């Protein structure tokens, strides 16, 4: 599956969340990661994030796409991630 992860995390934990996310996904810009991921790795990612985040302070949204067939990305302004990371 293709996954887009968007997060709003307390600044005390934001670097830890980014570090975990980058193990599984490509960093696109501040608070956004995306990439291909298996179901098993997605479960592992969520478990790692649960261990360091706080439900009452932090927010993470996952957009799951079954296929890239209907996916299109358009960037306005500065593109922060390198094109090589984009499938």
How would you sum up this structure, described in words?
By secondary structure, the protein is of the alpha+beta class. It has one domain (2-68): Alpha-Beta Plaits, CATH 3.30.70.240. Helices cover 29% and strands 26% of the residues. It has two helices and four strands; from the N terminus they run βαββαβ. The protein has helices at residues 14-24, 39-52, and strands spanning 2-8, 26-29, 32-36, 59-65. Strands 2-3-1-4 form a four-stranded antiparallel β-sheet, covered by helices on one side. A hairpin with a 2-residue loop joins β2 (26-29) and β3 (32-36). α1 packs antiparallel against α2. The two termini are 13 Å apart. The mean pLDDT is 90.
Low-confidence spans? none
Q: What overall geometry do the principal axes of the alpha carbons give?
A: globular
Structural class: alpha+beta
CATH topology: Alpha-Beta Plaits
The biggest sheet amounts to: 4 strands, antiparallel
Q: What's the pLDDT, averaged over the residues?
A: 90
What is the rounded distance between the termini?
13 Å
Please state the CA-atom Rg, rounded to the nearest Å.
13 Å
Number of strands: 4
Amount of beta strand: 25-35%
Number of helices: 2
Could you spell the SSE succession in H and E letters? EHEEHE
Text of the CATH class: Alpha Beta
Helical content, roughly?
A: 25-40%
How would you concisely characterize the structure shown here?
It is built from two helices and four strands, in the order E-H-E-E-H-E.
What is the element layout, followed by pairings?
Blueprint: E1 2-8, H1 14-24, E2 26-29, E3 32-36, H2 39-52, E4 59-65
Antiparallel strand pairs: 1-3, 1-4, 2-3
Helix pairs in contact: 1-2
């Amino acid at each position: 599956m293709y996954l887009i992860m968007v997060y709003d995390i307390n600044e005390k934990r934001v670097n830890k969340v980014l570090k975990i996310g980058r193990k599984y996904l490509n960093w696109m810009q501040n608070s956004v990661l995306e990439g291909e991921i298996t179901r098993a790795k997605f479960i592992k990612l969520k478990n790692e994030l649960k261990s360091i985040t706080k439900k009452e302070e932090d927010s993470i949204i996952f957009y799951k796409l079954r296929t890239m067939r209907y996916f299109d990305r358009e960037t306005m302004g500065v593109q922060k991630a390198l094109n090589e990371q984009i499938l």
